[in-house]
Amino acid sequence: MGVVSPGFRGRPRESSRRLPPGQYETHDFPVLSAGPTPRIAREDWEFTVTTETGDRHSWNWAELTALPSENPTVDLHCVTKWSKFDTRWQGVSLDVLLAEVETAADYVMVSSYGGYTTGMPLEDLLHGQAWIAYGYDGDDIPPEHGGPARLLVPHLYFWKSAKWVHGIQLLPQDEPGFWESLGYHDYGDPWREQRYQGD
Amino acid sequence: MNHRPDSDGYEDGNALAGPLSEIFAVDLTSALGRCANCGVTEPVARLHVYTRAPGLVARCPHCAHVTLRMVRSPDDAWLDMSGTVALRIPLTSG
User: Fold this and answer.
1) Which residues have C-beta within 8 Å of that of residue B36, sequence separation ≥ 6?
2) How far is CA B29 from the centre of its chain?
């Protein structure tokens, strides 16, 4: 080990400090999709939280958008290596939606219109870390970016922020969703570069 | 926000030829696969393949059920064919 670490070039620029390992910054907003884009009319949209005992808590579009909303500005980190800084959203915190839900579960499985699923610890949806987002950059979220509403969990790789979100099932144990069952990491922390199983 | 008019776009099953050639000795694009959901049999080349994703996702052209998925990490390939009942693979007799 030398006195000066290889690659040391003084103080990193702000953008590099905000980039998790292995990521590059993009100013675009790439559209990734594993299938046809669902087109869900607001009047048909519903979001349901189901507890481990089968209790269901549902919100339609009017009920969701009547709840107190927040306007988080967050950085996004996609496992395909792009990161996008300072994205501006509007949505309802999961703290609000889960406030009245009685559960002893430690994990969730998030499901989407179109069949997509992704799993994570319940803790990662709480404490101001996650939203059901229905606005992006002052406008509606277009269908190709997950509208009418998507999950937003920006501290995890973006595949966890399920587009076209439809429901959350509370579970006693972690279960793999669409990408977690095909080699991707169960948790997916960008700062620990948890891309694949075993990372 | 950038709108990608082709965001629903998919490629045909020939997009699987290269990635699958890393795993299988035969070209699977001419194989006939039966969808586990709707039961229709089609050549792999006719599947709808979504490539702009963290992996490759191939769907039945009739019912959109996922018939094949593949993820390539630096060290491994992950392959899920649970959506395909069986593949009929033509083999030329020597």
Assistant:
1) B65, B67, B82, B83, B84, B85
2) 8
**In angstroms, what CA-CA distances link A146 with A17, A33, A67, A149, B6?**
28, 10, 20, 6, 15
Please say whether the structural domain A42-192 has been given the CATH code 3.30.460.10. no
Per-residue pLDDT tens for A27-75? 999 999 999 999 999 999 999 999 999 999 999 999 999 999 999 999 9
Domains of chain B, residue spans: 15-88
Backbone angles phi, psi at A64, to 5 degrees: -65, -50
Interchain pair B54, A179: CB under 8 A: yes
Nearest-by-CA chain A residue for B79? A182
Residue A22 touches chain B, beta carbons under 8 Å = no
Q: What is the pTM of this model?
A: 0.91
